[in-house]
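re: ur question from earlier - yeah i can do the single chain one, its not a big deal. heres the input i used so u can compare w yours
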Amino acid sequence: MISKKNFAKVSATLGAVALGVSATATAANADTIYTVQSGDTLSGISYKFAKDNSMVNDLAKKNNIQDINKIYVGQKLIIKSDGEVQEYNAQNAANANVADNNTQATQAQPQQAQSQASQSYTSNASGSEAAKAWIAARESGGNYGATNGQYIGKYQLSASYLNGDYSAANQERVADQYVASRYGSWQNAQAHWQANGWY
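and the output i got, formated as tokens:
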């Protein structure tokens, strides 16, 4: 026979387990903005959400991915709770019931980037701001705090180039210097990135 004390413990345990299952089910049904990380593949992303490769073609089609073997770090996808895939854009992101399950890059911000983000820098680099923004979107999703091993910030520059100063102003300055010295312009850097997957 179970005493009242033991019955209360068993009831509390079962209640906590039931609550945990309920909370997990609620989070699992939320829409997700998925940010592509280094090493991701479309089949791997499909497996994370559908437990099989059934979403690969849908992911490629909805996001204008012509080669299913080539996706880019920082690329964003909206995966609806019903398994539907949508292209990431401002309107779809605003309409999504979002649980961002992929926040490693956005939460791993170096403290200096936060404390010195108020510094300003005006770019003098020749080339289009559109090409510069395109590269930043592919490298980090435009996030000054993104990290990937030794690569830091919005343009995923080597930490050695930044000399410990991860502020937004320094990232902009160093990126402009790097692109000017290596490619001559942001358009040339973008062309190189499109041909090789890096700049």
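Residues 21-29, 98-118 have pLDDT under 50 and may be disordered. not sure if urs matches, ping me
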